[in-house]
Design brief:
There is one protein chain. The protein has 204 residues and is of the alpha/beta class. The chain has a single domain, classed as Vaccinia Virus protein VP39 (Rossmann fold), CATH 3.40.50.150. It is built from 5 helices and 9 strands. This is S-adenosyl-l-methionine-dependent methyltransferase.
Amino acid sequence: MTRIVAGSAGGRRIDVPAAGTRPTSERVREALFGRLEHYGVIADARVLDLCAGSGALGLEAASRGATDVTLVDASRRATRVCDANIRALGLRGVRSATAKVEAFLAGPAGAPVDLVMLDPPYDVDETTLAAMLAPLPRRQDPWMAPGAVVVVERSSRSPEPSWPAGLRRFSTRKYGETTLWFAEPDDGAPSNDGAAADAEPAAH
């Protein structure tokens, strides 16, 4: 069973696609959103949930106060489930898009977002993951607002993502077989995050 952990839809169940997705566990979502709320990037936020699957991450953000959430998945089966969950929960400001992450991010950004969550299948290779991340720090028609946070969920057996220029890791958290990598826009200032993987972000 997958359910929303907290917020206006807390405790409500959501559907998941029958195959091809790996919903983030409730324990990891609870820890993730506790940290994101500590960073101050949930309330009234604009959010991208990439490789959304059931939409659990984006819907959790909306339940906790995000006001504009886009759920992106390459599978039409997955986005049909996302649409059903959006309707069932009655959360406003949430929409889905059926597209590969790279193709979606190649398009217009509109208003920059405050939070990007990327939870690709664990078998996605590092080159493909790097291609997904590459458009995020673009300077023309930017995707990320100042102080934005990017979260990548990976298997704990996977290496650190290859961050593109303009994006740097500021923290990691490991929960059993899952590791969360946190990154922020890189303004070019010196960073000592190599010495402290769990350092707090400079801008939050």
